[in-house]
Q: What sequence folds into this?
């Protein structure tokens, strides 16, 4: 039976349901170009094979936002160096400029910062979408959730892992400090426009709430301590 994966919460929905909106998060469900082909792409674990499939699908459906979005989120994983570790091939790594900027060379740091809002793959998606601001919010939430999952939750330093033991239930508390620092750095990033800062900060906060199952009390406390505020919509 054909299935569709929600672009926002990534949960699987049966195509037989003919749902217009995701039953889990309420996101609009757009018909996927190539149907089963796109489903196969999303379930391909090898980045190189996934990239090849996406390029072939893009050639068949050049105006498909769904295909363009998959290419955007894939980043450069297909170009990874198997002999060494280069986290920058992961799309969400661009947000590391707000967590550990001192660990990144200045020229690389500026390139990553620019990539958040300016990249050919993102530009293509914005050309295809009917609502640019809504797409930007979804994109920023997506990379924020991925960053939190991979680089905060996946960090023994931030999760206070001791002898291989991690108290995952305390993630909302443990990750509040690094998340608040990131929001603080976003807030004072003068290279972004005011609108970009608000979009990015709101998306990151929403992503943290999703990854923390709605437990934002500790993050709110850290944000208040650091003088970080997000304008309400």
A:
């Amino acid at each position: 039976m054909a299935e569709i994966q929600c672009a926002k919460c990534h949960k699987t929905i049966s195509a037989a349901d003919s749902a217009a909106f995701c039953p889990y998060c309420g996101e609009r469900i757009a018909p996927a170009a190539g149907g089963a082909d796109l489903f196969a792409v999303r379930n391909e674990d090898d980045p190189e094979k996934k990239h090849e499939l996406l390029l072939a699908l893009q050639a068949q459906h050049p105006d498909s936002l769904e295909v363009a979005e998959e290419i955007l989120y894939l980043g450069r994983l297909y170009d990874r160096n198997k002999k060494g570790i280069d986290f920058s091939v992961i799309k969400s790594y661009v947000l590391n400029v707000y967590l550990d900027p001192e660990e990144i060379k200045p020229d690389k740091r500026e390139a990553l910062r620019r990539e958040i809002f300016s990249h050919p793959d993102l530009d293509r998606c914005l050309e295809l979408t009917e609502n640019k601001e809504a797409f930007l919010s979804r994109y920023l939430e997506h990379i924020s959730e991925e960053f939190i999952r991979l680089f905060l939750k996946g960090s023994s330093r931030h999760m206070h892992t001791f002898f291989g033991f991690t108290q995952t239930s305390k993630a909302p508390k443990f990750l509040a400090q690094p998340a608040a620092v990131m929001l603080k750095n976003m807030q004072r990033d003068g290279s972004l426009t005011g609108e970009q800062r608000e979009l990015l900060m709101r998306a990151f906060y929403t992503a943290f709430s999703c990854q923390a199952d709605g437990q934002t009390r500790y993050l709110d406390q850290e944000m208040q301590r650091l003088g970080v505020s997000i304008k309400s919509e």
Summary: Strands lie at 3-5, 12-14. The two ends are 40 Å apart (CA to CA).
